[in-house]
Input
Amino acid sequence: MIIMNTTDNKEVKDFMCTLKCSTVGSCPFSFTEQSEIAQNYGCLPSPYEIVRMRKEFGKTWACHQDPTKPCLGAIQYMKEKGLEHKIIDKQLVTIDDWNSL
Output
């Protein structure tokens, strides 16, 4: 995990929160420095939190690039780990839902 200075740097936060996903850039399931930074700034949940949403609440995380579609990184990750990965609840959890918590 990357340890960052937690001072508010709006320019960096805005940049990290708008990068494209699909398991690259800041997608939580890209497991990159960019994704760690986005998680540390609170822009996106961690993979653990996304898997927990699915296992405990039956909710599927939406792609932060296109909130009408499920996060393919999350689905691929859960499928590889032998976890239930099919969408149960069609109402996806979006980045707006996450940021309002």
